[in-house]
Amino acid sequence: MNLGFSLSIPSFGWINKDKQAAQVARSSIGSVMYGAESGTSCPQTMTFACVPVLEKHATDRQRAHGWLSKAQASEYDPRNVPIGEKSAITLGMSMTEAQGGSVGLPTSSFPSAFPLLNPNLGRSSQYDLC
What is the arithmetic mean of pLDDT over 9-26? Predict the structure, then answer.
């Protein structure tokens, strides 16, 4: 993970979007990295994929915590601390299997999801995850 993030694999295409073939270069670098260490491909690819979503749909709270810049950081911050204390973030999917995914380890998590309010409908099906 450290190597992939320090090489900017998740962010290369976005931080170089003004350069020709930046996404092709990112994909190529990622392909080499993931061939050597496939366990990093999911979190790095999902961190890459979140950038346009954050650009378009980030909440004020997510903007205040710097989600977009932290998702494009060229470093890996594995610390389990609040996002405001992190220098970089890695995004990925939550495990949905009760046994802890394919690894088979028991897990527990307590997400902090805050329902967003729709002024016309009241409570919305969208959540702010902070």
Answer: 95
